[in-house]
Amino acid sequence: MKLLAFAASNSSKSINKKLVNYAASLVEGVEVETLDINDYEMPIFSIDREEQIGQHQLAKDFQKKIGDADALLISFAEHNGSFTAAYKNLFDWTSRLDTKVFQDKPVVMLSTSPGPHGAATVLTAATSAAPHQGADLRAQLSVPSFSENFDLESNSISNPEINAQLISALSELTKDS
Q1: Which of 67, 109, 118, 140 has the smallest CB count inside 10 Å?
Q2: In whole angstroms, what is the distance from residue 69 CA to residue 72 CA?
Q3: Where are the domains positioned within the chain?
Q4: CB of 175 within 8 A of CB of 145?
Q5: What is the DSSP letter of 166?
């Protein structure tokens, strides 16, 4: 089984990258490919731009990565209660190729933030839209107060209850549909 994992953040210091990398390491018996959405940076999407340049090759490349995977693991950063501009732009370009961006793959969606809400607002938006975007949403988890619940030295969740919730969520990826 091939697992594609990425953070919906373009920050080099992203706590969501730390979370998704840790989470991916917990899924046993899979080949993990971790993407950096910075590798898929494109001009800001608009209909006019699409008419000028056509479908962007990086969107096609991202779509192929999803297509080649058996399951997806995504951790969403939250900017002002919503998706990061970098992720939203990548998603917008890719959705022009096929509105079912996630291609009916099993997906676990995560989020975290420094605050007590753990980017729950963006996670709610992502999970609400997921079925319309071709995601077989298996589980979701918001990790609150990242610095209080994640040990940067060991790169792991330090809160046993949250860690157990994460392991339970991840176990849904490998269950049969």
Answers
A1: 67
A2: 7
A3: 2-174
A4: no
A5: H
| Burial label, 141 (beta-carbon count in 10 A; 0-12, 13-18, 19+) | buried
- End-to-end Cα distance, the chain: 14
Residue with tokens 């090759």: 57
Please name which of 142, 115, 177, 145 lies closest in space to residue 23, comparing C-alpha atoms.
Answer: 142
Nearest to 107 by CA among 61, 172, 59, 157: 172
Phi, psi of 105, rounded to the nearest 5 degrees: -85, 150
Confirm if 72 and 138 have CB atoms less than 8 A apart: no
H or E element: which one contains 161?
A: helix 160-171
CATH architecture of 2-174: 3-Layer(aba) Sandwich (3.40)
Task: Determine the Cα–Cα distance for residues 43 and 137; give it in Å rounded to an integer.
Answer: 29
Locate 107 and state its tokens.
Answer: 């997906």
**Residues 131 and 139 sit within 8 Å (Cβ to Cβ):** no
Residue 176 pLDDT exceeds 90: no
pTM score over 0.70: yes
Please list the helix, strand and coil fractions of the chain in percent, rounded to the nearest 5, in that order: 45, 25, 30
Closest CA to 72 of 157, 168, 8: 8
pLDDT band at residue 65 under the 50/70/90 scheme: very high
**pLDDT for the residue 56:** 97
